[in-house]
Amino acid sequence: MERDAFDGGGAMMEMHTQDIRAGAKPTAKTVCGDCIVGIELGGTKIICTLARGHDDIVETRRLATRDPVSTLADIERILDGWMRTHDVRALGIGSFGPIELNRSSDDFGRIGKTT
Fold first, then answer.
1. Span 47-63, pLDDT tens digits
2. CA-CA distance, 14 to 7, in Å (whole number)?
3. Which domain CATH number covers 56?
4. What's the total number of domains in the chain?
5. What is the pLDDT of residues 90-103, one digit of tens each?
6. Which three-class secondary structure string do you get for 38-91?
7. Residue 36: its H or E element
């Protein structure tokens, strides 16, 4: 495979040699197939990664951690874009603090304070 095609966001995409010779321009969905998204929430930065597997990264975006509303809006914009152009099958989140896992809690899914 050759790596010489870029999608609209600047992320490198793989194209099969026969597609390049035929002049075809595959869509991101056909290039990515079953993608997964990983989000690492850190105290100073957020890393969002779109991948086909552990060793097959499609795109990585790094954001500064800001206030909760702005940070979540930034993440949502990235995810919305990827969901429109890629066949995303799963999402994983790594958090810098404890996440409330009790489904009956009013704070279910929220990140708590570390002590």
1. 999 999 778 999 999 99
2. 10
3. 3.30.420.40
4. 1
5. 999 888 778 888 89
6. EEEECCCEEEEEEEEECCEEEEEEEEECCCHHHHHHHHHHHHHHHHHHCEEEEE
7. strand 34-41
